[in-house]
Write a structure and sequence with these properties.
heterodimer, A: 112 residues, mainly beta, four-stranded antiparallel sheet, B: 114 residues, 53% strand
Chain lengths: 112, 114
């Protein structure tokens, strides 16, 4: 019951902005969008999250459409170390807590 | 950020034996921990939600008698794969919930059942 869809792979030139799209057309009003990335055989690393406003931190920016049906993660100046699988996740409330529903992920390759 | 460790990082066991994987929150107390499974080139699938001092909540399709979860303290949750079979070979990842908005993941445990 994945709630997000992402392109399976993308390439980006080193130093350029990487824009990773995510569709979450069935998202509910109180469900947050999270982005994590996973470098081979490691645990996922938190990047950013948001509800409806655009967000920015030292790693990335998150742009969420007004209808909240899609979002874009932007890595402003991609480096080779940004090569990873990027997961767009919806956080859903359940039984007094929250759980993450992972999408299929986008494998980003940053090219020198 | 908060740190979560897992032990062991890799384990090989024979079919029919049981394996225990530990998940520890090193610098925070995690009332809730999560266990995920990841097959090669696939996404993470939530297996269960573990709350300190109570029974775990398993996702649909996950056998609770096969994947035993214990969350006896605020910093330790364990996953025991009982009577392991080759199809249980996978990458098992835990995470600890720091707050309503933050969840930190461990480095994962690669289980190979021969």
């Amino acid at each position: 019951d994945a709630k997000t869809t992402q392109p399976p792979s993308m390439d980006c030139a080193e130093g350029r902005a990487a824009n990773l799209p995510c569709n979450h057309s069935t998202i509910s009003g109180n469900e947050y969008v999270y982005w994590y990335r996973q470098i081979h055989s490691q645990g996922p690393q938190y990047i950013i999250h948001g509800l409806k406003n655009n967000e920015t931190n030292e790693m990335a920016s998150l742009i969420i459409t007004e209808d909240r049906k899609s979002s874009t993660l932007i890595l402003p100046h991609a480096t080779l170390r940004d090569t990873a699988v990027y997961y767009c996740i919806v956080r859903v409330a359940t039984s007094g807590t929250y759980k993450y529903i992972f999408g299929t992920g986008t494998r980003l390759k940053v090219l020198a | 950020g908060a740190v979560v460790s897992q032990h062991p990082s890799r384990v090989i066991c024979k079919s029919g034996t049981s394996v225990k994987i530990e998940c520890r929150s090193l610098d925070f107390q995690a009332t809730t921990m999560f266990w995920y499974r990841q097959f090669p080139k696939q996404s993470l699938m939530l297996m269960a939600t573990s709350n300190e001092g109570s029974k775990a909540t398993y996702e649909q399709g996950v056998e609770k008698d096969k994947f035993l979860i214990n969350h006896a303290s605020l910093t330790l949750s364990t996953l025991t794969v009982t009577s392991a079979h080759p199809e249980d070979s996978s990458f098992y990842i835990c995470s600890g919930r720091v707050s309503s908005y933050e969840q930190y993941f461990g480095p994962g445990t690669r289980l190979t059942v021969t």
